[in-house]
C-alpha cells in the first residue's frame, strides 16, 4: 500500500466514479483502476461495487475509508512538520491562479516576496488555468492556495479568504463602435447586440449570465474563449463588444479599445484563498501572511 493508492481511493469516494477521480488526480482512468485493484488484492477485500458509471463503497470499503481519511491527514501533517527540519531542501509554494497574474499586481508582489525571503531557496510553482480547474487543484492538493474570483465559489465557508480587489465589470468595444461615445451603458442597451465572452469555466461567464437572467434579458453570444486577451485582440479589429472586469483591460496594449462603465454597476471580488483544512508548510505560511500584510498596506 502506498500514499498514492490512498489518494486515489479518497478521490473516487469524493467524485463517485473512476473517470472523474482520474481527471482530478491527473492520471489516466486505466492507471487509477490498476492501482485500486492492486490495493484490493493487498487488503484481500473489495472496496467498491460498480454500477454502470458510478461506484459505491462496500461495507469493507466504508471501514477502510475511515482509516484512509485519518491516514492521509496524518501523512499531510507529517510532511508539514518535517519540512521545518529540511534546511537544505528547496522551499516550494504551490499557487494556482486564474489568468489574472499580470492584471492585479500579483506578479509584482510575488517578486517582492521572493526578494524579502531570498535566503530561503524558494521555488514558486504557479499553476494557471480556468476557475473550475484551479478550484479542483486546491481541493485535490495540487495547489496550496490560489488567486480566484469569489463569485460562484462553491462551499465558500470551507475557505480562508484574503480579499484584495473589487473590480467593476465594464463594456469593452472598439473606439468606432456605436457605444464608444456613451458615458455609461445599461444591460438593456447591450442585450440586442451579440457578445464575445469568456468560456463557461470562467466565473465572469456566470456573472454575465446571472445578471442577464435577473433582468430577463436575452444573451446573444457571438464568440467564447478562455483568455481575455484574445477577446481584446479580436475587438481591436471587430465591431463586436464584450463585458470584462476593468482591471483586465489594458488600454496601453489595445489603444483602439474603449471602456464604458455600466449604469448599474456589477462587481467581481478577487482573493487569495486556501482550504481551512489545509496545513501550509513554513514558507507557504510566510507567503499567506505576507499577502495579507501587503493588502493592508495597499489600503492605507
TrEMBL record:
PROSITE patterns registered for this protein in UniProt:
HTH_LYSR (PS50931)
Cite the HTH lysR-type domain residue spans from the record.
1-58
Looking up InterPro entries in the UniProt record yields:
HTH-type_LysR_regulators, LysR_HTH_N, LysR_subst-bd, WH-like_DNA-bd_sf, WH_DNA-bd_sf
Q: Does the keyword Transcription regulation apply?
A: yes
**Pfam families in the cross-refs:** HTH_1, LysR_substrate
Q: Which cellular component terms (GO) are annotated to the entry?
A: cytosol
The protein's name is HTH-type transcriptional activator CmpR
What is the native source organism of this protein?
A: bioreactor metagenome
Gene, per the UniProt record: cmpR_5
Amino acid at each position: 500500500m502506498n500514499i498514492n493508492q490512498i489518494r486515489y481511493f479518497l478521490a473516487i469516494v469524493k467524485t463517485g466514479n473512476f473517470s472523474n477521480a482520474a481527471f482530478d488526480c491527473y492520471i489516466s482512468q486505466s492507471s487509477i483502476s490498476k492501482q485500486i485493484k492492486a490495493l484490493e488484492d493487498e487488503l484481500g477485500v473489495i472496496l467498491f461495487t460498480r454500477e454502470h458509471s458510478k461506484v459505491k463503497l462496500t461495507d469493507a470499503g466504508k471501514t477502510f475509508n475511515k482509516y484512509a481519511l485519518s491516514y492521509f491527514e496524518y501523512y499531510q501533517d507529517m510532511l508539514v512538520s518535517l519540512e521545518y527540519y529540511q534546511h537544505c531542501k528547496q522551499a516550494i509554494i504551490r499557487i494556482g491562479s486564474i489568468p489574472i497574474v499580470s492584471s492585479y499586481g500579483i506578479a509584482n508582489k510575488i517578486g517582492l516576496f521572493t526578494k524579502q525571503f531570498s535566503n530561503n531557496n524558494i521555488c514558486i510553482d504557479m499553476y494557471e488555468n480556468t476557475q473550475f480547474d484551479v478550484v479542483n487543484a486546491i481541493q485535490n492538493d495540487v495547489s496550496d492556495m490560489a488567486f480566484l474570483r469569489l463569485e460562484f465559489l462553491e462551499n465558500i465557508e470551507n475557505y480562508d479568504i484574503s480579499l484584495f480587489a473589487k473590480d467593476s465589470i465594464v463594456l469593452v468595444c472598439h473606439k468606432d463602435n456605436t457605444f464608444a461615445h456613451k458615458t455609461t451603458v445599461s444591460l438593456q442597451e447591450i442585450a440586442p447586440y451579440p457578445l464575445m465572452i469568456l468560456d463557461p469555466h470562467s466565473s465572469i461567464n456566470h456573472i454575465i449570465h446571472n445578471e442577464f437572467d435577473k433582468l430577463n434579458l436575452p444573451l446573444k453570444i457571438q464568440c467564447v474563449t478562455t483568455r481575455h486577451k484574445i477577446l481584446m485582440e479580436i475587438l481591436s479589429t471587430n465591431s463586436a463588444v464584450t463585458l470584462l472586469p476593468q482591471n483586465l483591460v489594458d488600454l496601453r496594449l489595445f489603444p483602439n479599445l474603449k471602456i464604458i462603465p455600466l449604469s448599474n454597476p456589477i462587481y467581481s471580488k478577487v482573493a487569495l484563498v486556501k482550504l481551512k483544512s489545509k496545513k501550509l508548510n513554513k514558507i507557504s505560511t510566510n507567503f499567506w501572511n505576507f499577502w495579507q500584510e501587503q493588502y493592508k498596506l495597499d489600503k492605507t
